[in-house]
Amino acid sequence: MAAGKNHKTDDDDLIVPKDAASVSFVKGLVARGQAARPDGDGSLPPGATHEIVGETENGLPILRRRRVY
User: Fold this and answer.
1) 9 has which bridge partners?
2) What is the 3-state secondary structure (H, E, C) of 17-62?
3) CA distances in angstroms from 12 to 6, 52, 64, listed in the order given
4) If we measure between CA atoms, which residue out of 21, 19, 18, 16 comes closest to residue 35?
5) What is this structure's pTM?
6) Rounded CA gap, 64 and 54, in Å?
7) 48-68: per-residue pLDDT in tens?
8) Taking a C-beta distance cutoff of 8 angstroms, is the pair 16, 26 a contact?
9) Is 65 helix (H, G, I), strand (E, B) or coil?
10) Dihedral sign from CA coordinates of 38, 33, 46, 11
């Protein structure tokens, strides 16, 4: 099935720093402790709202929003 306009993929949730605004946003999340790598059981530390899921060629983190329910 092809992804249409209303079809959400996992890549839709990624925040990849590509321009000055997204680089600043990602750096701010990391600096405030709102972006972190999950621990062994997949949990994020308290206060973290974004999971670091990778890195760009420049070494900046690629993030995915993690909602707490």
Assistant:
1) none
2) CCCHHHHHHHHHHHHCCCEECCCCCCCCCCCCCEEEEEECCCCCEE
3) 11, 15, 9
4) 16
5) 0.79
6) 9
7) 999 999 999 999 999 999 976
8) no
9) strand
10) negative
Domain locations in the chain as residue ranges = 17-62
Beta bridge partners of 50: 35, 65
Residue 69: both structure tokens together: 């329910």
User: Are 37 and 55 spatial neighbours (Cβ–Cβ below 8 Å)?
Assistant: no
Q: Inform me whether the pLDDT recorded for 47 exceeds 70.
A: yes
Q: Which two tokens stand for residue 26?
A: 């990602």
Amino acid at 31: A
